[in-house]
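Support reply, case 0932

Customer input (verbatim):
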Amino acid sequence: MASWLPKTRFACVLPMAAPRAGLVHVPINPMLKRAQVAHILADSGAVALVTQAGRSATLEQDDISENCEVILEENVSLDAVLSASNADPDTLAAILYTSGSTGRPKGVMLSHANLWLGAISVAQYLKLAPADRVLGVLPLSFDYGQNQLFSTWAAGASYVPLDYLVAKDVVKAVDRFAPTTLAGVPPLWVQLLEIEWPQSTANNLKRLTNSGGALTAPLVHGLRARFPQADLYPMYGLTEAFRSTYLSPELVDVHPDSIGRAIPFAEIMVVRPDGSPAAAGEPGELVHAGPLVAQGYWHDAQRTAERFRPAPAWAQSGGLAVWSGDTVVRDEDGLLRFVGREDEMIKSAGNRISPTEIEEAVVAGGETAEAVALGVPDARLGQAIVVVARGDGTHEAALRARLRRDLPSFQQPTRYEWRAELPRNANGKLDRAALKAEMTS
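Our regenerated output:
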């Protein structure tokens, strides 16, 4: 059963009600348009779509199969009481579709155990308590947003759903509802730091959590200054295993570029290309094993086999692991640092360059608050570094001069593209794939 809804009360209940009723829930991001919705409905084989009349009217006849019943939220009662589920923990409970920035969205299959253990894990390390009030600004179709709902309720806390249009809406909601917890992605934090906050309103927040992209040092410093009462939890995750690591708040100031250690129920390994464990300080692929690993991609055996492979022989957890394709480094203390995705690494003049490292250097001086570094074909270098940054280019000369001091010659961007705004995908993250396609077309 698919749902295509804003964050109504019914939309918040549905992710738990559907699996308890023996259904597989397929939440569709409310930001998606009819072509993407039609693809998800067809790909998932949904037998029902719960939506609203206005949204239903945007779909064409061919977008919905004759086997899929459209159910309007306006006609559904919330009075029914469902008994506790007695489903096998390994039973499929939900299919979450990725944002599709690199092509058509693909569905990640999650079991009852995946969802439940993920909720308990996060509630535990965030130290959520019944007195907490969590402001939900992330889409419920996003694994980060859905788990925020589940982990809040697992802790007996309160969840405040919010569909916002501009960052000021978030400030108003924090002032009105006095939440203790806010989760976001880096582009949202940038926006929230660029607007005014009454200090009394900012002091309501006791806990900030970040995923969907690494926090830069300027962002960490900005969040610390704006929300002095709040613990900051940087996190790393991937939909195929939900969440992999978090950094304890007391370590953030000393290790602002770290993604931390494994969350409860996860085994995180750094693996060399030959399958052996990487040494401290040695880059390797992040591999996630344990009960949070999803069941694969819906109706896509080929891509499942590429990403979900047996855990290394030396792993403590058996079974399938998610081979993330992300390069990380573990330090002597066991803390992990994200280097970059293998398919996003820039290969220039024989050097493998992390776009994350370039982006962090670009924003460090304040000439711009957001930037994406890309490798584009170059006859001489193989790939040249192009930076797409937010702004009008006024400070480009100062930025170039600073980077000449801070970065080696092979890491110097050859070109800057300045934009009033950078594109974002349906989950609010910077749409790197869209920029890559534009820059290389």
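We compared this against your earlier run and they match. Two observations from our side: The first strand starts at residue 2 and ends at 3. The chain is about 30% helix and 25% strand. Please reopen the case if you see a mismatch on your end.
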